[in-house]
Design a protein that fits this description.
It is built from ten helices and four strands; from the N terminus they run αααββααααααββα. By secondary structure, the chain is mainly α. Helix 2 packs antiparallel against helix 6, helix 4 packs antiparallel against helix 8 and helix 8 (190-211) runs antiparallel to helix 10 (238-272). It is globular, with a radius of gyration of 21 Å. It starts with 6 loop residues before the first helix and ends with a helix.
Length: 273
């Protein structure tokens, strides 16, 4: 116990909590949007139980990864088609590709659903097309996929399991406190739900980019980084991702203000005419 109560572990815990908060925004956004697919009366419980189960499984995933990190990092297949595709594929590569494709599919499907509706205000029946259990399972699966990069990043800071577990539990509590607020905000400001879906689309691209150097980073061998047509797949930096999100929000706010101004001018002209 005395070994845990050290200044180094305290600093690592603060860093891990900050890391979980930064990397957990896209996860929270997915939970808020996906939970609206459940029946209205069950949406709050879906978010709560989805997060609780996902956090518990994330701790289990962390423990398993600490024990099996060596076997998980080794590439099980190496592409050797010069000029076409080269590089190694490991467990992390598969997880990032699956997660990226699934998130992009979800975002495109939801954007298409919203564009096909006559009015954005009466899509409750259309969106409540999944059972609560189905949505919880999706939230848990995607939470684990989202957590994979944060778990890998956390292991780069420390391998002390209790410190890592506490950081994950604290991030889960934060998601429980914020999930309902984010969902209510999206319900009252539907334009930001569309914005959120486009952000999820970018998140999918980010995860696909993370698949490129996954095997090379794990084995500390750049030759294993995936190259397609002699072009190395480079992941998007977190700073670039968050800068893109800020720009999207800024454009949406400016566009909304300009639209309100135009509508006010049109109403004024109609009164005078």
């Amino acid at each position: 116990m005395a070994d845990l109560l050290t200044l180094e572990n305290a600093i690592n815990l603060v860093m891990l909590c900050f890391l979980q908060a930064v990397l957990g925004f896209d996860n929270l956004l997915y939970i808020s949007i996906e939970s609206q697919r459940a029946p209205v009366a069950q949406q709050k419980s879906v978010r709560t139980w989805g997060i609780i189960i996902a956090v518990a499984l994330r701790v289990v995933l962390l423990f398993v990864m600490i024990q099996l990190i060596a076997s998980l990092s080794a590439p099980f297949y190496i592409f050797d088609w010069p000029g076409v595709i080269e590089g190694g594929v490991n467990f992390a590569t598969i997880v990032f590709i699956f997660g990226g494709v699934f998130i992009m599919y979800t975002a495109v499907k939801e954007i298409g659903h919203m564009l096909s509706m006559d009015k954005l205000d009466h899509d409750v029946d259309g969106k409540s097309s999944k059972s609560a259990l189905h949505v919880i399972i999706l939230i848990v699966i995607m939470n684990l996929i989202f957590s994979f990069d944060s778990v890998l990043s956390a292991l780069a800071i420390t391998d002390v399991f209790p410190v890592l577990a506490i950081a994950i539990i604290l991030s889960g509590l934060a998601m429980l406190l914020l999930a309902d607020g984010v969902t209510r905000f999206l319900e009252k400001n539907r334009m930001y739900e569309v914005l959120g879906l486009f952000i999820l689309l970018i998140v999918g691209v980010v995860l696909l980019g993370e698949a490129g150097p996954a095997a090379g980073h794990a084995m500390e061998n750049d030759a294993l980084n995936i190259r397609v047509f002699d072009t190395e797949i480079i992941p998007m930096s977190k700073s670039t991702f968050y800068f893109s999100v800020i720009v999207l929000f800024a454009v949406e706010i400016l566009q909304s203000g300009y639209s309100r101004k135009l509508n006010a001018e049109r109403k004024a002209l109609q009164k005078h005419s």
